[in-house]
Design a protein that fits this description.
The protein has 305 residues and is α/β, with parallel strands linked by helices. It has a domain of 212 residues: 3-Layer(aba) Sandwich (Rossmann fold). Helices cover 45% and strands 9% of the residues. The chain has 11 helices and 6 strands. The chain has a 6-stranded mixed sheet, sandwiched between helices.
């Protein structure tokens, strides 16, 4: 039997680490400002439960004041346990809204049997959530995507769309009316799973709709997990690369003026920022020179009364 004191110690360490990672992401990307009303999109899965729980804790110690309101979209899937989320949110004593929209019937009518419904379902859900955000007066919409989701999207876009594109931690919606944030952007999925298990969240299964899983995304997840087992630190370095883009060493002519590049071009800022071809010039092994330690993140300081 596990020592309860040791388990409590490990849970406390995990809690602090998640707060630190989420706090750093919020700070780095200016996700939440003083006076914001943040709409937490709560699906009933481990990611959104964790996001809500950590944001509630950070709100108590943050140097700014902001509101949280939880929103769940009941899409009228068969056997959806509609009482679970309201009961859970009432215990937390936070504002919440359950939006009932039968998108399930629409998706089943439009998508052929056996095909994945996720694409259409996502578009319908997004439009509804934007409308609800307007009605609630929310200034930010928080989604529960984590670090692994971002990396999987990066690989999917590279392999299937020919683009260097992932999920941004903060974005403006297509209609320019909403700011969407992803507070879990720095958090590995394995930490979320550990936290959800320790907190014993009332998880609602994500397979109620009967849709086939996204097989391409599942393949990316399996690839990342395999890399992490075989080459510890590789996935962290892949994520770190998203923070250090060198346009002059890629091929996008809209990001770097290759046509205008001459021997007389002023590249001072470029060299200072990206070190040019120093690794090649000095004969360094670029792979061996990358530090294996994880990025050290700061933490939102406790609010001073």
């Amino acid at each position: 039997m596990a020592d309860p004191r040791k388990q409590e110690f490990e849970d406390n360490k995990l809690d602090k680490k998640l707060c630190r990672l989420v706090g750093q992401a919020i700070t780095d990307f200016g996700m939440i400002a003083d006076g914001d009303k943040v709409m937490i999109c709560l699906s009933g899965g481990k990611d959104s439960y964790t996001m809500l729980d950590i944001l509630l804790k950070l709100r108590e110690r943050a140097p700014i004041s902001f509101e949280l309101v939880a929103v769940n979209l009941d899409q009228k899937q068969p056997n959806f346990p509609e009482e679970i989320l309201p009961n859970y949110l009432r215990k937390l004593n936070i504002p919440f809204h359950i939006e009932e929209q039968d998108t399930y019937s629409i998706v089943k009518r439009v998508i052929p049997e056996g095909k994945t419904t996720c694409g259409l379902c996502s578009r319908l859900r997004r439009g509804i959530l934007y409308r609800v955000a307007d009605e609630l007066g929310a200034s930010k919409i928080a989604l529960g995507h984590h670090r692994d989701d971002i990396l999987e999207t990066l690989l999917l876009n590279m392999f299937y769309a020919g683009k260097l594109k992932a999920m941004p931690p903060k974005l403006r919606s297509d209609d320019s009316k909403h700011i969407v944030i992803r507070p879990l952007a720095y958090v590995p999925e394995k930490l979320i799973q550990r936290y959800a298990d320790s907190m014993q969240f009332p998880i609602i299964p994500c397979d109620l709709c009967g849709s086939q899983p996204n097989l391409q995304r599942a393949a990316m997840k399996k690839m990342l997990q395999g890399w992490e087992r075989a080459f510890p630190g590789r996935v962290e370095n892949l994520f770190r690369s998203l923070h250090h883009i060198v346009p002059s060493h890629l091929m996008d002519q809209t990001l770097f003026d290759f046509q205008g590049l001459t021997l007389n071009s002023d590249l001072t800022r470029l060299i200072d920022s990206f070190e040019g071809d120093r690794a090649i010039d000095e004969g360094e092994d670029a792979c061996a020179s990358v530090a294996s330690d994880v990025i050290q993140f700061a933490f939102i300081p406790k609010k001073v009364n």
